[in-house]
Write a structure and sequence with these properties.
heterodimer; A: 174 residues; mainly alpha; Potassium Channel Kv1.1, Chain A; 53% helix; disordered N terminus; B: mainly beta; four-stranded antiparallel sheet
Chain lengths: 174, 376
């Protein structure tokens, strides 16, 4: 039951699956890591993804998929232990440090990540990015939020609507 | 899971405004401050729709200041509701209602949507029974006439003005209030917008401390820490709500105010609140010092104990707790003590370490005693 150090296999006998990104790049990864995705887990349990077949992921590009798999490989051992009741505090702290650094990236990458995590139903990754986005939003005005998340500049109508809505919520600062 | 994507018309670039509703919900649930939710909802129409449609846990409370401005916890910047007169309220009525005075009565105002609910004047009270009179007995020993039982009929007589010490909106059809002359009061009920209150005129008054609407029933807590349940009926002619019976639920084992030899003293306040599906009694001791006949509350010197209403065994059951957010409070017409500092803030009592801290950045003048919580 001991968690392996990192994604370097379970006694060398781990089952591997192949994932194919929208731009046709092939990723070979342990089934245990790919199974963090609820969607992939079903396919893998059905015996898919092995051999030369590969599972096509038409909604995820290679840059995003590589990032998603980095997360899955890191989290697979803890997930295999069922939330890791026997994980040490050191392990948990290490995972937390990894998570914090992992989402310390540009908003456009965060966007691709959360959309891919949603698509592949990777719950932990969705929560992680959602938390990062919430932290980026906290304390900011609607206009600051738009800039932080790379929204296009609002049209005059959109601007007027934003202002009206803030007034509706009572948000006129002293 | 269905991929429900909010489509943005006339816009091709992938954008945060288009994130699926459930992802928007994940982000929103991580924003407990009312201010952050309001600002989230203002970002774009799609996020506005998400904030309106999604079921969310209630946000953190707001703090209302008497001149009509608000703090949204945990932020220390004040804001106001434009075009809505929120200054001059008396207190809050459980939840989102601010209570305002009007000639011999009150009205309720919801600053979030701007709606008003009128309450009857305190001069308009329907007695039950209608022919109730103040009863007296002659005390042979002391050779004097005494009010027995001391009821609403005695309370409403005399010079002192009747005041409302607590008001709660139980449902759209029922408002309940403690009305009296400190420290005693009686429970009055009315339908919002009705022309009169209703009272059981011959019931003995009580030293009520707080009340709460819990699982469809109204509970009242008295200074002796007895928990009472208030049952309602309908006036057969008007259909207005009225108190049919007040039953005992828990017999208290009270702690009372004491003065110690070193001139310190603990003043007791009781609160009745619902938390995590339980009905809780919070016993607060405000530590004071008696100096030259003045009672001064020592800033931050508060102790709290929390008890769960154990209905099965009719007793208060001591509970461990986490943190209690509190304000220095004071009844406007009943000064029990003064404060030794000019400025105050939200205190946080840690039930594990039994220590008080003031971690939130907002601060206001102490004389504004009617700073109050709002729960949108």
């Amino acid at each position: 039951m001991a968690a392996p150090e990192s994604g370097d296999g379970n006694n060398g006998a781990a089952r591997m699956v192949t994932l194919i990104s929208s731009d046709n790049t092939r990723f070979e990864v342990e089934a245990a890591a790919a199974s963090l995705s609820q969607t992939l887990q079903l396919t893998i349990l059905d015996g898919g993804g092995g051999g030369g077949d590969g599972i096509p992921l038409p909604n995820v590009d290679s840059a995003t998929l590589s990032k998603v798999l980095e997360y899955c490989i890191k989290h697979a051992p803890a997930a295999a232990n069922g939330g890791a009741p026997n994980a040490t505090a050191v392990d948990r702290a290490e995972l937390e440090r990894f998570d914090n650094e992992f989402v310390n990236i540009d908003q456009s990458v965060l966007y691709s990540l959360i959309m891919a995590a949603h698509n592949l139903e990777i719950e932990g990754l969705q929560s992680l990015v959602a938390k990062k986005v919430a932290d980026m939003i906290k304390g900011k005005s609607p206009m600051e939020i738009r800039r932080t998340l790379g929204f296009p500049d609002p049209t005059p109508e959109e601007q007027a609507e934003m202002n009206a809505h803030m007034l509706e919520y009572g948000w006129a600062y002293e | 899971m269905a991929d429900v994507t909010l489509l943005r018309t006339g816009h091709q670039q992938p954008s945060w405004s288009d994130i699926p509703l459930d992802l928007a919900g994940m982000v929103l649930r991580l924003l407990p401050a009312y201010a952050d939710r309001a600002r989230f909802a203002s970002v774009c129409p799609q996020w506005r729709a998400a904030a309106r449609q999604l079921p969310l846990p209630p946000p953190l409370p707001l703090l209302a200041l008497p001149y009509g401005t608000f703090f949204s916890l945990p932020y220390s910047k004040t804001f106001h509701f434009p075009g809505r007169r929120c200054a001059g309220y008396k207190t809050a009525a459980c939840g989102k209602w601010l209570v305002f005075p009007r000639d011999n009565g009150r009205f309720l105002f919801d600053p979030f949507v701007g709606s008003i609910v009128m309450l009857p004047a305190l001069s308009r009270v329907r007695l039950r029974p209608p022919n109730a009179v103040a009863k007296y007995v002659h005390d042979e020993v002391r050779n004097m006439t005494i009010a027995e039982p001391f009821s609403w009929m005695h309370l409403k007589e005399g010079e002192k003005v009747l005041t409302i010490s607590k008001l709660i909106v139980c449902s759209p059809n029922l408002v309940a209030a403690f009305v009296g002359k400190n420290p005693v009061s009686q429970i009055l009920v009315c339908q919002p917008g009705a022309s009169s209150w209703s009272v059981r005129a011959n019931d003995k008054v009580n030293m009520f401390q707080d009340m709460a609407f819990y699982q469809g029933k109204l509970y009242a807590l008295a200074v002796d820490e007895n928990l009472l349940v208030v049952n309602f009926g309908q006036d057969p002619s008007t259909g207005d709500p009225q108190v049919s019976r007040i039953g005992h639920v828990i017999k208290g084992d009270p702690w009372y105010t004491v003065v110690f030899p070193d001139n310190t003293m603990g003043k007791k306040k009781l609160y009745l609140v619902e938390s995590c599906g339980m009905l809780l009694m919070v016993r607060r001791k405000v530590w004071c010092i008696v100096k030259e006949d003045r009672v001064m509350a020592m800033t931050g010197e508060n102790d709290f104990e929390v008890f769960k209403a154990d209905f099965e065994h009719s007793r208060w059951y001591g509970m461990p707790g986490d943190r209690i957010f509190f304000l220095d409070d004071q009844l406007e017409d009943f000064k029990e003590y003064a404060y030794d500092e000019d400025r105050t803030s939200v205190g946080v009592y840690n039930m594990k370490t039994r220590e008080v801290s003031f971690p939130l950045p907002m601060v206001w003048n102490h004389e504004m005693i009617s700073v109050t919580w709002l729960f949108p």
